[in-house]
Design a protein that fits this description.
The protein has helices at 8-29, 43-46, 56-65, 69-78, 87-97, 122-135, 153-174, 180-202, 213-219, 231-249, 273-282, 291-294, 313-319, 330-344, 358-361, 364-375, 394-418; strands at 34-37, 52-54, 113-117, 139-142, 260-265, 285-289, 348-353, 379-383. It is an alpha/beta fold. The protein has 2 domains: 19-180, 3-Layer(aba) Sandwich (Rossmann fold), CATH 3.40.50.11890; 184-416, Rossmann fold (3-Layer(aba) Sandwich). It has a 4-stranded parallel β-sheet with strand order 2-1-3-4, sandwiched between helices. The radius of gyration is 21 Å and the shape is globular. The two termini are 31 Å apart. Bound molecules: iron/sulfur cluster.
């Protein structure tokens, strides 16, 4: 049994997530209007109403992290859904079919409205459409243009128009009036929370890094639930950042003998968080940064936060809709990774190729080549599904990773000896 003591941030995370899920179930049982949203639907906008907001992708990630992703997926596969479908969708469909019996939180309360978007992936729309047909509830689809660079004005107006339609739709379905003041307040909370989040991520710049990206995978959870836009989120990220800074001050590094500073390109490997991070640590390697979690609060491949400026929430949310990685074109993905490599002194990259998520994986081969050419650092591509452990071979993945790390060490030794100086361990 593990004797590792939980940090204050970890304890707080468990508490706020549990309380939120419990409160959602209770509110739904008393008749609250329940909305299921895709992960990048702007929750702050929905805070202008009195709703229960649930995120199936977040629930699926939690199932995977708790080790039951494959069990829930199998339930969907027995209904005829292919293993080639996204594992988030399979987990969610399996959980709904089994009425939440296998879920750690008994599934999500039944929805009255579904809201998806097509700029993470079009698969999401089809997945929510299954619920729309089977549960007989309305499905609102946000059509968000793909993102190849800075957002164009016509795209921003197009997105804002759909947000206004969404507000109107919810007003009609619920009989509630949209409260602009509440949406504004939610945006202020999110902005403050992201400020702390960026403080925490910034600790990766230290050598050895003050954090691992695995911590950011774990702690991104409340951001993608209805905790977004709340004081609880602000407080959670404040605790996380303060604790991280305090840990750094007493030189308590996650990987004290850090020889390899890695970047992770892909969705979090939910079923491997502890085992992969500790096995990497044993090799002197730390995944210090990941676009998947650094994109929160930024836009279009940037690392820095775009703080809320107090403007009309509809306009601001339309402007910042393109924060997540999936809708980026190749150039934007490359620019984002390049900035992270330079700013945080990354010396190798793990590309997590994921059959579930085609949209994230499809351009990784090109990115891998571009990163190698531009930075001359070793890279590796491993096969790992984010939520279905059956699509991961740990021995194979670590054989590849260890080879990459050896190449990195050899290349640094060569550079040091050519410079005629003894090798300096960056740790
Ligand atoms: S395919 Fe990828 S982007 Fe689409 S829902 Fe699954 S994980 Fe998300």
């Amino acid at each position: 049994m593990s004797t590792r003591t939980k940090s204050n941030a970890e304890k707080n995370l468990t508490r706020i997530m549990f309380e939120q899920y419990q409160a959602d179930h209770q509110a739904a049982s008393k008749g609250s209007f329940v909305v299921w949203v895709a992960i990048i639907v702007p929750i702050e906008l929905l805070k202008g109403f009195d709703l229960v907001v649930a995120v199936p992708e977040n629930h699926a990630a939690m199932c995977a992290a708790k080790g039951i992703g494959a069990d829930e997926s199998r339930k969907a596969e027995r209904l005829g859904y292919s293993m080639d479908l996204c594992s988030y969708a399979r987990i969610d469909l399996g959980t709904v079919y089994d009425q939440g019996r296998g879920s750690p939180i008994k599934g999500l309360p039944k929805p009255d409205l579904l809201i998806s978007d097509n700029n993470n992936c079009s698969h999401l729309v089809k997945w929510f459409d299954v619920h729309h047909r089977q549960m007989g509830v309305p499905h609102f689809v946000l059509d968000v243009p793909f993102c190849y660079g800075p957002q164009q004005e016509k795209d921003r107006r197009y997105i804002a128009g759909q947000y206004r339609d969404l507000i109107h739709t919810i007003e009609q379905l619920t009989g509630q009036r949209f409260d602009l003041r509440k949406a504004r307040e939610a945006l202020r909370h999110t902005s403050e929370a992201v400020g702390h989040w960026k403080r925490f991520l910034g600790l990766a710049a230290h050598r050895p890094s003050g954090i691992t990206a695995f911590e950011t995978f774990i702690h991104m959870a409340p951001y993608i639930t209805s905790l977004r836009g709340t004081p609880e989120l602000v407080e959670h990220y404040r605790i996380l950042a303060d604790e991280g800074r305090e840990r750094l001050a007493r030189a308590a590094f996650p990987v004290p003998h850090e020889r390899h500073r890695l970047l992770w390109d892909g969705i979090a490997p939910w079923h491997q968080l502890r085992s992969m991070s500790s096995r990497l640590a044993g090799l002197g390697a730390n995944v210090i940064y990941a676009p998947y979690t650094s994109c929160l609060g930024a836009v279009e491949g940037g690392v820095d936060q775009v703080p809320y400026d107090g403007s009309d929430p509809v306009e601001f949310l339309a402007r910042t809709q393109n924060f997540s990685i999936c809708p980026y074109g190749l150039d934007l993905r490359f620019r984002a990774m390049s900035e992270m490599i330079e700013r945080f002194g990354v010396d190798a990259v793990i590309f997590a190729s994921n059959r579930s998520c085609k949209v994230y994986s499809i351009m990784q081969m090109d990115l891998k080549r571009m990163i190698s050419e531009r930075f001359g650092i070793p890279t590796v591509m491993i096969e790992i599904d984010h939520a279905d452990v059956r699509m991961y071979d740990e021995s194979q993945a670590f054989r590849q990773i260890e080879t990459m790390l050896e190449m990195g060490s050899a290349s640094r030794d060569r550079t040091a000896s050519q410079a005629g100086s003894p090798r300096v361990n960056p740790a």
